[in-house]
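User: Predict Acyl-CoA thioester hydrolase's structure from this.
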Amino acid sequence: MSESSQPAAPASKYCRESRVFKTGRVFPNDINNHQTLFGGKLMSNIDEVASISAMRHCRCSVVTASTDSVDFLSPIRPTDSFCFESFVSWTGRTSIEVFVKVIAENLYSGERTVAATSFLTFVAIGPDGKPAPVPDVIPQTDEEKLVSDLAEERSELRKVRRAASKKLASQLITTKYWE
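Assistant:
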């Protein structure tokens, strides 16, 4: 398909249209030897809510292209609940950046803290299995604007990091170590 015959991107959407909330509680099988929530469990939930935000934004299938960052800022303990809040913070032609904020709440004291933040990138996939155009995103709240302000810079860093990852991968061996 030539550049001029590609489908037009859908109309713009507000960040709030992709917002997702999920609250959970820490149970004994969720904790590590430090008596805090397993990082992998947190990351799995982050990917889940982020993918829902991405699909709400583009209303088609998406694939996770990268987990750009997960910053663990404070531990989540067995006395805490954790709330994930995600929304689309930036879009490219077919890519969607999603911001996820994780808030821990001590269920006894009510104290709340931002326990983690994360940025993930998804690619929209059309019915033909190829990347599909996505709507632009419009931030409205102060927090949405704060998160969106550096999105172009993060996008450029992703491109550099991906190129470096591809270069490294091309130099890695794939033979079985026992051969």
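The chain is about 25% helix and 35% strand.
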